[in-house]
């Protein structure tokens, strides 16, 4: 089972990747320089945050029968949808996203006014497209354990911390 957790900055992708990893799942945050970079999707287009498609495709192609969660959002992510079993769109109200962006550690993106403006402009422009391609839409303003349970239940995996 290969699952993409996607959505705008501040919806909880990295947090969920960390939680699934802590629960014993193979989980990779694609929003890092190892997996992504700034470039144009096509020559002549604007520079955007895009995935290193060859590396991401290799990761998705090499995964075993175990669940693999990948998290991220990039202008070219649709290129790997055929390698995924499930796309989960994570959403949150704007005020929740603003609070998370202002207080998160380890990622400075979204702290500058122009970055916040871009995030919410992208949310208005692209979130509907992401939703159209999603198998599941999850509101991440709920408690984290509820979000994890909803995703795990939907994709049919049993987590190590589940009780009998």
Please tell me about this protein's structure:
InterPro entries: P-loop_NTPase. Pfam families: AAA_18 (PF13238). This is AAA family ATPase. The protein has 164 residues and is α/β, with parallel strands linked by helices. The chain is globular. It has a five-stranded parallel sheet, covered by helices on one side. It has a two-stranded antiparallel ribbon with strand order 3-4. The chain has one domain: P-loop containing nucleotide triphosphate hydrolases (Rossmann fold, 3-Layer(aba) Sandwich). It contains five helices and seven strands, in the order βαβββαββααβα.
Main sheet characteristics? 5 strands, parallel
Strand content: 15-25%
Number of strands: 7
Q: At CATH's second level, what is the architecture?
A: 3-Layer(aba) Sandwich
Total domains: 1
Averaging pLDDT over every residue, what do you get? 90
Report the end-to-end length measured between terminal Cα atoms: 22 Å
| CATH-level-4 superfamily name | P-loop containing nucleotide triphosphate hydrolases
Taking all Cα atoms into account, the compactness measure Rg is 15 Å
Structural class of the helices, strands and pairings?
A: alpha/beta
Question: Helicity range of the residues?
Answer: 25-40%
Enter the CATH topology name: Rossmann fold
CATH class: Alpha Beta
- Contiguous runs where pLDDT drops below 50 for at least 5 residues: none
Instruction: Tell me, briefly, the overall form.
Output: globular
Widest sheet: strand order? 2-5-1-6-7
- The tally of helices reads 5
What is the H/E string? Answer: EHEEEHEEHHEH
């Amino acid at each position: 089972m290969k699952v993409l957790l996607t959505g705008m900055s501040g919806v909880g992708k990295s947090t969920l990747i960390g939680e699934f990893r802590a629960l014993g799942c193979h989980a990779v945050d694609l929003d890092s320089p190892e997996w992504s970079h700034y470039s144009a999707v096509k020559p002549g287009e604007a520079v955007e945050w895009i995935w290193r498609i060859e590396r991401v495709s290799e990761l998705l192609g090499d995964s075993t029968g175990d669940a693999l969660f990948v998290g991220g959002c990039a202008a070219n992510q649709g290129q790997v949808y055929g390698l995924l079993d499930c796309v989960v769109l994570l959403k949150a109200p704007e005020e929740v996203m603003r609070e998370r962006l202002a207080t998160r550690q380890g990622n400075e993106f979204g702290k500058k006014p122009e970055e916040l403006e871009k995030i919410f402009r992208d949310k208005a422009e692209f979130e509907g497209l992401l939703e159209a391609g999603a198998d599941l839409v999850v509101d991440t303003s709920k408690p984290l354990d509820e979000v994890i349970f909803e995703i795990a239940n939907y994709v049919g995996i049993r987590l190590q911390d589940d009780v009998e």
